[in-house]
Amino acid sequence: MPQPTFTSFLGIGKETVFGTPAAATAFIPVKTMSPSDKLTLLDDQGMRGSMVDVYDKIAGKIWAEYGFDGDVFPDTLGWALAGLLGDVTTTGASAPFTHAMSTLNSGNGQPPSYTLSDYYTITTRQFAGLKFSEVGLKFSGDGMLTYSAKATSLASAPSTKPTPSYTAVPPLAGWVGAVTIGGVASTFVVDGECTIKRPVTVVQAVDGTQAPYSLWSGPVSVSGKLTLVMEDDAQLTNYLTNAKPSLDINYSQGAGASAVQVKLHMTKAAYTGAEVSRGKDYIELSVDYDALANTTDAGASGGYSPIKVTVQNAVASGTYK
């Protein structure tokens, strides 16, 4: 008997100890969920007098990878961003709370770990020790603000079904956003994207357990693209002169306790490519950029960061991290 796709849901919980499963405390509306356990199979190729090469498959180390995506909800997006960047400072005595997120540079530099609870009718599988490796945001004037997230975790394990409870905050339409380049409002941006990445290395050891010794988060990098109505040569000149303007992608909506915001601030965005396009009835300019590390975008842990993300919502301090 087939099982229904659309009864699936995804929950997340913050771990106190890495790898110790945490119950889901928030539930993320998603469009796709892509769990994948990674079991290493080791070939037994010891020759036994026959014209064959593999006699057995021996189980090696095991871990998992997880991807999900959907429209941006200003409260649930904070989990992936905090898990990727690691430095979170929350201000506000009541809603709306403001969460400033930057690259964590103190201690061992490791962001928090989480447990994802993936329910798919047959059972719930928990992915503990989860570390985020990528969050990408995309926007356009005629669509939604969307995201995709990737993570690495310990191998999945069955668990009991949690009771989901969802945010009442609506997702954000793409046209709501405002883009500022070099401190100047840019009303001619057609679409764009910003991707924050940090590699997660699966560290294997001879330690008597099939699980990895560690899931180790590496350095943060930020890159993206913008498509602009080419009103003048200003942005092409930014590329040709290596100007490195600041770049803000700001989505805010509501007022008072219901106010929400998702803001990406990059103090130094180096254009790595710029291409003039005449494929439409008007001329466009496609720009690629890399955000550069700087002290302005750093958080409470100091050092450098290529980006500072501000998330405003009703989520209280200490929830994401």
From TrEMBL:
<dbReference type="InterPro" id="IPR044000">
    <property type="entry name" value="Phage_tube_2"/>
</dbReference>
<protein>
    <recommendedName>
        <fullName>Tail protein</fullName>
    </recommendedName>
</protein>
<dbReference type="Pfam" id="PF18906">
    <property type="entry name" value="Phage_tube_2"/>
</dbReference>
